[in-house]
Write a structure and sequence with these properties.
Elements: H1 4-19, E1 24-27, H2 30-37, E2 45-48, E3 53-57, H3 62-68, E4 74-77, H4 82-93, E5 97-100, H5 106-113, E6 118-121, H6 125-129, H7 135-155, H8 165-178, E7 189-192, E8 213-218, E9 221-222, E10 225-226, E11 229-235, H9 241-261, H10 268-281, E12 293-295, E13 302-306, E14 319-322, E15 325-328, E16 332-335, E17 338-343, E18 346-349, E19 359-360
Parallel strand pairs: 1-5, 3-4, 5-6, 11-19
Antiparallel strand pairs: 1-2, 2-3, 7-8, 8-11, 9-10, 12-13, 14-17, 15-16, 17-18
Helix pairs in contact: 7-8, 9-10
């Protein structure tokens, strides 16, 4: 199996965490299972102890789990799933204490507690391991990003007055899938005109009109890893284009300031403040209400969080978005989003699409 040392290293780091908490650690989040094992199926759980690495799944994945986990894990095929499989394994192995992911449902935790074992929450321990990307993860995320960029460039000539938001989203999805994306990280956002003042607007049957700002937010996928980009176009003509150009350039400068601030050792809050402070000083602070960015990897939204409310220390190997925006009700909005890698302590902008204001003329 390729990159088996990466998976062995992840297992070793999880064991160190587990040893300090309980006799065993139970992993049920399917994204964390993929991260730890390479398994791409939909149903499994892991039990890790100091000396054993146990993988549980059902008959559907008997061959697949053996092929994908690279011999690091003891494969167990069971008839039960979820909490029932976990309880059966815990009882059979006779543990007195088990660490579990704190993201499980109350019913799952209640089922664990009913076994009589001492339960200890992991509290995002595996998600924190995922913040630092290996060289192979960086390759996969980069390829997911290139797919997203290629798909956009393919449909970009079709983005003009008269085309509907939903048509743009469908064209972009079709191109992403044609390029090999097995799934999309999130539903594509296409918002034009007044709709673009809503940061997470869903594409509608509205036609793009002269003078509209058009926000597009989308991502690609490659071998289980995602990318995330936003770009905003301005349609020629219409009303209030002077202010639209003004807020575009403010957002672009805020993005540049935040990207230049990013480096290892600082708080993610500092990056957020670089963008937010400039937008506020420009008179539009009340119209930028979301965080400045987020980590990207197996999930399209994961740690680190580039925001004032959930600060964390920036380190080498982190990949995250920087995506300031200004959203004016009744006028429209602008968001520009890049992905950044911290490499040798410094920011490396991974996104290659241009950021200058593009006025679409027909």
């Amino acid at each position: 199996m390729k990159h088996i040392n990466d998976y062995a290293g992840r297992l070793g780091r999880l064991r160190k965490i587990a040893d300090e908490l309980a006799e065993a650690v139970l992993v049920t989040d399917i994204k964390n299972i993929f991260y730890l094992t390479g398994f791409t199926g939909s149903s499994a759980l892991l039990i890790v102890t100091k000396n054993r690495a146990l993988f549980y799944t059902d008959f559907r994945y008997k061959e697949q789990s053996a092929a994908e986990t690279g011999g690091l894990w003891e494969i167990n095929i069971v008839n039960k799933k979820g909490i029932h499989a976990a309880v059966g394994a815990i009882k059979k192995l006779g543990f007195k204490s088990v660490a579990f992911e704190s993201s499980v449902s109350y019913d799952f935790w209640d089922g664990l507690r009913a076994t009589g074992v001492r339960t200890v929450p992991l509290r995002s321990a595996i998600e924190n391991l995922r913040r630092i990307k290996t060289s192979e993860e960086i390759v996969r995320i980069t390829k997911a990003l290139r797919r997203a960029e290629s798909a956009f460039l393919k449909i970009k000539p079709s983005i003009k007055p008269g085309v509907r938001e939903i048509q743009i989203a469908r064209m972009l999805e079709q191109e992403l899938k044609a390029l090999g994306c097995r799934s999309l990280p999130f539903d594509i956002i296409v918002a034009s005109g007044k709709n673009s003042s809503m940061p997470h607007a869903r594409p509608t049957e509205k036609k793009v009109e002269p003078g509209d700002l058009v926000i597009m937010d989308w991502g690609g996928e490659y071998e289980g890893y995602f990318s995330d980009i936003s770009r905003t176009l301005l349609m020629d003509g219409g009303n209030k284009t002077a202010e639209k150009k003004k807020i575009y350039n403010i957002v672009k400068t805020a993005l540049k300031k935040a990207e230049e601030t990013a480096r290892s050792g600082i708080s993610s809050k500092t990056i957020d403040s670089a963008a937010r402070g400039f937008i506020t000083a420009s008179g539009y602070g009340d119209f930028f209400g979301h965080g400045t960015g987020h980590g990207v990897g197996i999930n399209v939204h994961e740690a680190p969080w580039i925001t004032y409310s959930r600060p964390s220390r920036i380190s080498n190997g982190m990949i995250f978005t920087i995506e300031p925006g200004i959203y004016l009700p009744g006028t429209g909005g602008v968001r520009i989003e890049d992905m950044v890698l911290i490499n040798n302590g410094k920011p490396e902008v991974m996104t290659k699409l241009g950021k200058g204001i593009e006025i679409v003329r027909v």
